Amino acid sequence: MLPGERRNRILELLIINRAITVKELCDSLETSEATIRRDLTIMEEEGKLERTHGGAVLNTDVFLDNEEIYRKKEQMHSSEKAAIAAKAFEFIEDNDSIILDSGTTTLELAKLIGKSNVKITVITNSTTFSSLLVNNPNLELILLGGKVRLKTLAVVGNTANEMLKRLRVNKAFMAVNGISAEEGLMTPDLEEAEIKRTMINSAMERFVMADYSKFKRLAMCKIVPVTMIDYVITDTRVEQGVIEKFEQNDVKVIRV
Q1: DSSP type of residue 226
Q2: 181 by DSSP, 3-state: which?
Q3: Residues 37/182/246/240 CA torsion (nearest 10 deg)
Q4: Residue among 69, 109, 66 at smallest CA distance from 210
Q5: Do the bridges between strand 169-175 and strand 140-143 make them parallel or antiparallel, or are there none, so unpaired?
Q6: What are phi and psi of 55, to 5 degrees?
Q7: Which of 11, 86, 143, 210 could form a disulfide with 214 if both were Cys (CB 3.0 to 4.6 A apart)?
Q8: Average pLDDT score over residue span 158-181
Q9: Which residues contact 155 (CB under 8 A, 6 or more apart)?
Q10: Among 2, 6, 7, which Cα is nearest to 43's?
Q11: CA separation for the pair 71, 69 (Å, rounded)
Q12: Which range is most confident: 53-57, 152-156, 199-203?
């Protein structure tokens, strides 16, 4: 097992158990104690865990297992989200077909599209974007149907996923709860992860819109690895070392 794969497995075990001993990791991964201790030291330096006597615990400051409600998230990092949306809007061209997933950063992009005259087709699983988007007279809007997840006001489930699988678009603009070069895109909810994964698979170009705080978060459900996306649009508070890890995976990072 490669070092990166082994550390990913350590993180998965910590997410499940919240705490684990060196011996348990040695037994599970069939690896020496010296190797496990070295892995734990590296992961502690990355802020993913905290070392304890004989083992490690998950760093609860970075693990997200309980999502804030949508209206509260709207108020968080609002200036960064607006700047990220403005940059994302520059990638939208006349006659594009795009997917907008339900998020508070993509909400800012929906506002800009609604105020414009750009001629595009928008597909979304948001129950709140319609009133903003329809102000654009040149827009064709397709709403996904199905179960509404009240915490995020997003449509999820089999009906929405099956509808998306029949569509192919130029670009997808996604929001996430957590992102890292090692763990990929993350969200706390399985159904949200599934719909986001389907959106990404339906698009020819994939854009992730994420402010700096998302790079410090992990969540239980993985969406896709970063190799499945083309662009990350973020703000200037993301460190250069973090950006370099994405660029090593052929992901273009744009800071605004």
Answers
A1: G
A2: coil
A3: -40
A4: 109
A5: unpaired
A6: 180, -145
A7: 210
A8: 95
A9: 102, 125, 126, 127, 143, 144, 145, 146, 147, 148, 149, 195
A10: 7
A11: 6
A12: 199-203
Render pLDDT for 95-123 as a digit per residue (tens, 0 to 9): 999 999 999 999 999 999 999 999 999 99
CA distance linking residue 62 with residue 83, whole number of Å: 24
Q: How far is CA 192 from CA 45, 70, 148, 174, in A?
A: 30, 14, 10, 12
CA 223 to CA 195: how far, in whole Å?
A: 9
* 141 beta partners: 122
Q: Which amino acid is at 169?
A: V
Structure tokens at 27: 């037994």
- What single DSSP character describes residue 134? T
What counts of helices (H) and strands (E) characterise the chain?
10, 17
Q: Six-digit token pair at 53?
A: 């006597």
Q: Supply 48's token pair.
A: 């993913």
Q: Is 154 helix (H, G, I), strand (E, B) or coil?
A: strand
